[in-house]
Amino acid sequence: MMKLDGIAAFIATVEETSISAASRRLGLAKSVVSERLAELERSLGVTLLQRSTRKLTLTSAGQAFLSRAQRVMREIEEAAAEVDASAGKLAGPLRISAPVGFGILHLGPAITRFLKDNPAIEMSLELDDNFVDAATGGFDAVLRHGAIGDGRLIARRLARSRRLLVASPNYLVNRGAPVALKDLEDHSGILYANRSGDWRFAVGTGWSVVRPKSALRVNNGIVMRDAALAGLGLALLPSFFVHKEVREGLLTVVDIGWPAEGAELFLTYPRDHGAAAKIKALSESLRASFGDPPYWDIL
């Protein structure tokens, strides 16, 4: 008969890529995790993991079992969370992924507030500028900036964000300030590597696309902001990256007569995550911390 602690050991081992790391995550001795894995395999009558001195590899049976095991454990965790929520208490683990730049600039105080209000929650926050699949990445929820477009996910809106075309005052003195869309093609652009190189502006009832010359491509908004501050070129950035620099006059908002495409911040999680009481509470707390309109859009 399968035991839940064996399933938990299996999932932790796969996600952490080693028994040693899984034992640290679970707070157990390495020998205990190994025995629970062996007991799970005996109960199933198959080998789930191929073990060698260098690495662990999922067998075909292990691969088939993994997604269902993760779903079962999520449902159990959420069922327990619902019971806690009905009793006025939220508790247990909560693993979140978020973009690096936004996490550094804005998540710290907001997460601290949430955890002070819910001291029994054990949060793990991982910052990553690469695409993280909220449905299969092993996280309870993923904070996203931009459109979701994934039917597997539930998306809870946290806040909106304007995108601002900005440059340093020195850059604009040296290169001249663009005043129309066509002018942008003659300027250097600091571009986000994880998006296409296009800049989109709302023109009338449609969209106009500009493809600036690239001075720098990078997958981090803070580095883009710093490049703009150094006078490397124009940058089209969410206001949450540049609101302080704009207020202080270190960056100038460039007005070309049309607003740039905006975006929204969402907390996303798989549809099979059950009631997700902890995620709902986190999204409500983050919305309260960011404000409506969010404090970074009050320039």
**Which CATH C-level class of the largest domain is it?**
Alpha Beta
CATH architecture annotation name of the largest domain = 3-Layer(aba) Sandwich
Elements, N to C (H/E): HHHEEHEHEEEEHEEEEHEHEEH
Q: Roughly what percent helix?
A: 40-55%
The residue-averaged pLDDT reads 87
The shape is elongated
Strand order of the largest sheet: 4-3-5-14-6
Give the helix/strand class: alpha/beta
Per DSSP E runs of 2 or more residues, the count of β-strands stands at 14
Keywords: DNA-binding, Transcription, Transcription regulation
Pfam family, one: LysR_substrate
Family: Belongs to the LysR transcriptional regulatory family.
Protein name: LysR family transcriptional regulator
Report on the structure:
- It comes from Sphingosinicella microcystinivorans.
- Keywords: DNA-binding, Transcription, Transcription regulation.
- There is one protein chain.
- The strands form 4 sheets. The chain has a 5-stranded mixed β-sheet with strand order 4-3-5-14-6. A 5-stranded mixed β-sheet has the order 11-8-12-7-13.
- The protein has helices at 4-16, 19-26, 30-44, 60-86, 100-117, 169-175, 221-229, 239-247, 277-290, and strands spanning 49-51, 56-58, 92-98, 121-127, 141-145, 153-161, 163-167, 188-192, 199-203, 206-210, 213-218, 234-238, 252-253, 263-270.
- The chain is 40% helix and 25% strand.
- It is built from 9 helices and 14 strands.
- It starts with a helix and ends in a 9-residue tail after the last helix.
- Helix 1 (4-16) crosses helix 4 (60-86), helix 2 packs across helix 3 (30-44) and helix 5 crosses helix 9.
- The chain has 3 domains: 4-80, Arc Repressor Mutant, subunit A, CATH 1.10.10.10; 91-159 and 264-297, D-Maltodextrin-Binding Protein, domain 2; 163-261, D-Maltodextrin-Binding Protein, domain 2.
- The radius of gyration is 23 Å and the shape is elongated.
- It is an alpha/beta fold and 299 residues long.
- The longest helix is centred in the first third of the chain and has 27 residues, at 60-86.
